Amino acid sequence: MPTITNPQYLLDQAKRRVTTSPMLTLPGMGLLEKRLNARDWPQHVMAQPPAGSDLKPVMGDGGLPIIGHMVEMFRGGPDFWLQNYRKHGPVMLLDSPIIPTVAALGPDAGRAIYSNGNKDYSQQGWTPMIGAFFNRGLMLMDFEEHLFHRRIMQEAFHRSRLVGYTEQVDKVVSQVVANDWVANDPRFLLYPAMKELTLDIASMVFMGHEPGTDKELVTKVNKAFTVTTRAGNAIIRTGIPPFTWWRGLKAREYLEGYFEERVRERRGRDGSDLLSVLCQSEDEDGNRFSDDDIVNHMIFLMMAAHDTSTSTATTMSHYLAANPEWQERCRDESDRLGDGPLDIEALEKLESLDLVMNESIRLVSPVQWAMRRTVRDTELLGYYLPEGTNVIYYPGMTHRLEEIYPDPYTFDPARFTEPRNEHKKHRYGFTPFGGGAHKCIGMVFGQLEIKTIMHRLLRRYRLELPRPGYQLKQDYGGMPVPMDGMPIVLRPLH
Ligand code: HEM
């Protein structure tokens, strides 16, 4: 059984602990956050509505020079937005020096943004953030072109394909959870371990590398993914060596080369990994992806699948450790399935895990933002938005509204059951996977993957908090990341 004795392991874990944003780690930041939140910033108008219209102007402020409201956003996440929603209403200007944006808050704004009835909102709101690294990924495409690509990609997420992926996910998970994770040690950090696991899963299920094979290549590819994914959060947002943005561009180049070669290999061959499936996929009219399309989609898919699944599985593990009665309930269902190979029908029986997953991603929503840009002058809930306005919707804030979720900070998975069904109070009250034309295409795949991980984990270990009263703290600088890597104790059951 692996143990934490090796200095290299400890050094590695220590390094992971300090990758958190300085907004969270520098001394005095908590106090600064409190002061900034208490401040009444002078408000200004973003743009005057056309004369004669009864639209209201969007008002807002820029926060501190250079860093704007980063301290409050990175530290407070959804609570920062909630405070602003209560104070300023559903539409406000965040006049950030990096990307000035209109924040659209609450479920009615979610409806307008996701349903996008008049096609006023394009996905190009994402471009300043991640466009350089995830260019021509599905989420960054718009309207007709997006629909064309989505129809072809849909084939790769059909239930008949998910059967094959689930089998492969289980193969990797069983091996890693059984052999690589450290038990009985409160220094074991779940977040980096889970991140490695979801990358190992992707190496097999997405790219067809059997676990333990092509080690050097897989490590290089995984590293390149981590670098590209992080680069969107860079403060210096231009390709100057050796900074984060530049490293992201280099890593993207490497990934393009890697996938170009793989596509050449896979074309015309059978295979059940996602890359092979994308090479074969076609829509009802026989349209297929070009080689370049597949390279771009694969790079985006890896990003879209990886941190989201890591975040969800880690958050679920934390809440199960903190709520032993729910842990037992989930384990009872897993025990009924036993240790046999998993398939979709078996995973569908783990209903308590579905509730725990929903409640976990309500409390810690992995995709914090839906970013859009207006393609013409329009209105949002009675406010005037000129063409070219960046708009950000914040689902995690809606998930904390007490008018939808009474006692919103309490972990209570039963709120998703009959007759309470709190998430159905508003059609856009629960959107961790987005909504409308761009709703997550990998939702079911992700749910199956996460349930496989949790099932194997619960069959093997009891999950415990590292110490009584342990509080989970997130870095909300990008996708939420537990600041301390989330120590957790795995107690072997057998
Ligand atoms: C718990 C896991 C996941 C969460 C919470 C999640 C969340 C989301 C959200 C909120 C969006 C919409 C973004 C927007 O409105 O602009 C999205 C889109 C997308 N997701 Fe996921 N995702 C997850 C897992 C996955 C997985 C496993 C894959 C692939 C295997 C995936 C692939 C995609 C793709 C391709 C899009 C773009 C869809 C489009 O624009 O048509 N996601 N995801």
From TrEMBL:
Its cofactor is heme. GO terms for molecular function: heme binding; iron ion binding; monooxygenase activity; oxidoreductase activity, acting on paired donors, with incorporation or reduction of molecular oxygen. Keywords: Heme, Iron, Metal-binding, Monooxygenase, Oxidoreductase. It holds the Pfam family p450. GO terms for biological process: sterol metabolic process. Gene3D superfamilies: Cytochrome P450 (1.10.630.10). Heme binds at C440. Belongs to the cytochrome P450 family. This is Cytochrome P450. The gene is cyp136.
